[in-house]
């Protein structure tokens, strides 16, 4: 079943120290609390080794950050999609900018996620708007559940992707042309409720973000503010 990501905030824990191991469980607990208090759709994407502990501790959806198209058996060191599902993940990121894959490597992962009922969020993002839109169209043709467009140069900074409305609108339009059933998220530099609001205004269903929450002095406060943009 596809996870409902309408008007949502997907918090990518990446490998931030503040979002690893016991701290991942604590931070996911904060996300869970805010989801409840703000009545918001919040998802956490955690490291593979943290999926089980986080999924047991919270009721919001937990995603993996990556899967590999390997089978049970001889695949040492790869991430078995069945294992993330069994650990409690209900979806997965695929081809995040920090773990980028070619389109032909994305396809088997999207197919495997679909087969197992894991909701897929495939990231897109190249140096220029044109290249990002081209890549996004190729990914949309694979029919993932979601595409999250993130310009790599804005990731981890304080300038929001929404300062590039042409890019966000362009991606939304491009995906609609290829497959209107694929939904669009966007991310990079999203730090405030206004950024979230603008992302929705530009036609996305929500945002994918990390440092605005993982590195915040007060993650609960930061997330509460981000949620205001969903209202
Ligand atoms: O996956 C989310 C991400 O790449 C954006 O990171 O820190 O700019 O919100 P950040």
Quick rundown:
The protein has 231 residues and is an alpha/beta fold. The chain has nine helices and eight strands.
What does this structure look like?
With 231 residues, the protein is α/β, with parallel strands linked by helices. It has one domain: TIM Barrel (Alpha-Beta Barrel). 41% of the residues lie in helices and 16% in strands. It has an eight-stranded parallel beta barrel, surrounded by six helices.
Give the overall silhouette: globular
Q: In the residues, how many domains can be counted?
A: 1
Compute the gyration radius: what is it? 16 Å
Fill in the CATH topology. TIM Barrel
Biggest beta sheet attributes: 8 strands, parallel, barrel
Question: Could you give the order of strands across the largest sheet?
Answer: 1-2-3-4-5-6-7-8
The structure class reads alpha/beta
Q: What is the CATH domain class?
A: Alpha Beta
Mean pLDDT: 97
SSE blueprint and pairings:
Elements: E1 8-12, H1 22-38, E2 41-46, H2 51-57, E3 62-64, H3 81-87, E4 91-94, H4 103-116, E5 119-124, H5 129-140, E6 146-149, H6 165-178, E7 183-187, H7 193-201, E8 206-209, H8 211-214, H9 219-228
Parallel strand pairs: 1-2, 1-8, 2-3, 3-4, 4-5, 5-6, 6-7, 7-8
Bound molecules: SN-glycerol-3-phosphate.
């Amino acid at each position: 079943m596809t996870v409902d990501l309408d008007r949502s905030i997907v918090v990518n824990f990446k490998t931030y120290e503040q979002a690893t191991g016991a701290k991942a469980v604590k931070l996911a607990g904060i996300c869970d609390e805010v989801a409840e208090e703000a009545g918001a759709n919040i998802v956490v994407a955690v490291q593979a080794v943290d999926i089980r502990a986080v999924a047991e501790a919270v009721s919001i959806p937990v995603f993996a950050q990556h899967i590999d198209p390997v089978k049970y058996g001889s695949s040492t060191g790869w991430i078995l999609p069945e294992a993330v599902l069994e650990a409690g993940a209900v979806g997965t990121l695929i081809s995040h900018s920090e773990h980028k894959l070619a389109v032909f490597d994305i396809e088997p992962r999207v197919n495997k996620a679909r087969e197992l009922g894991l909701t897929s969020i495939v990231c897109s993002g190249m140096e220029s708007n044109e290249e990002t839109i081209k890549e996004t169209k190729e990914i949309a043709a694979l029919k993932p559940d979601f595409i999250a467009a993130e310009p790599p140069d804005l990731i981890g900074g304080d300038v929001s992707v929404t300062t590039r409305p042409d890019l966000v609108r362009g991606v939304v339009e491009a995906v609609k042309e290829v497959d209107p059933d694929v939904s669009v998220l966007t991310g990079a530099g999203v730090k405030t409720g206004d950024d979230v609001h603008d992302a929705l205004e530009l036609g996305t269903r929500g945002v994918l973000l990390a440092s605005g929450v993982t590195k915040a002095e007060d993650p609960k406060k930061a997330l509460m503010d981000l949620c205001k943009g969903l209202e």
